[in-house]
Description:
There is one protein chain. The chain is of the alpha+beta class and 198 residues long. Among the domains are: 60 residues, Ubiquitin-like (UB roll); 72 residues, Ubiquitin-like (UB roll). It is built from 3 helices and 6 strands, in the order ββαβββαβα. The chain has a 3-stranded antiparallel beta sheet with strand order 2-1-3. A 3-stranded antiparallel beta sheet has the order 5-4-6, with helices on one face. The protein starts with 28 loop residues before the first strand and ends in a 33-residue tail after the last helix. 13% of the residues are buried. GO terms for molecular function: structural constituent of ribosome. Keywords: Ribonucleoprotein, Ribosomal protein. InterPro entries: Ribosomal_eL20, Ribosomal_eL20_dom, Ribosomal_eL20_eukaryotes. Belongs to the eukaryotic ribosomal protein eL20 family.
Amino acid sequence: xxxxxxxxxxxxxxxxxxxxxxxxxxxxxxxxxxxxxxxxxxxxxxxxxxxxxxxxxxxxxxxxxxxxxxxxxxxxxxxxxxxxxxxxxxxxxxxxxxxxxxxxxxxxxxxxxxxxxxxxxxxxxxxxxxxxxxxxxxxxxxxxxxxxxxxxxxxxxxxxxxxxxxxxxxxxxxxxxxxxxxxxxxxxxxxxxxxxxx
Length: 198
């Protein structure tokens, strides 16, 4: 009886995620993509269509743009062109904000509309939390989630979900149950003779 040897897989070291690496697919970036239909004799100046796309890089952003434009305006990549692709940066990246996100996603039983709220530092962080949450709770893939709108909830009355509203309480504090006092390792007396030479 011959024994079949299975190929062994080696683990490769992965670098830490960086937002500046275009090949990094773990972090999303907000892009503003503008495109149009190619000019023709019947329509020499076609209308421009602008979309906000959350994608890991420019290539995926362009691909998602043509996917949505083909379904909405019947304009495909072969008969259209992209005029501009611009990355949008967060204006206040150190401020904690509340976001409301409207989505439509395809499950194994049908298409569903959904509204979810997240408390994050930026719009891209909120969208990343959305994709992780939908993958955990509903087994929804990246390709089956369509983001319709992302809005910052500036007023506390606009927050609907109780898991976000409970964090808006004035004077909110959290206990520190396991506080370890730092041991002072500095010696009071020195066993070496002091020197004045540098």
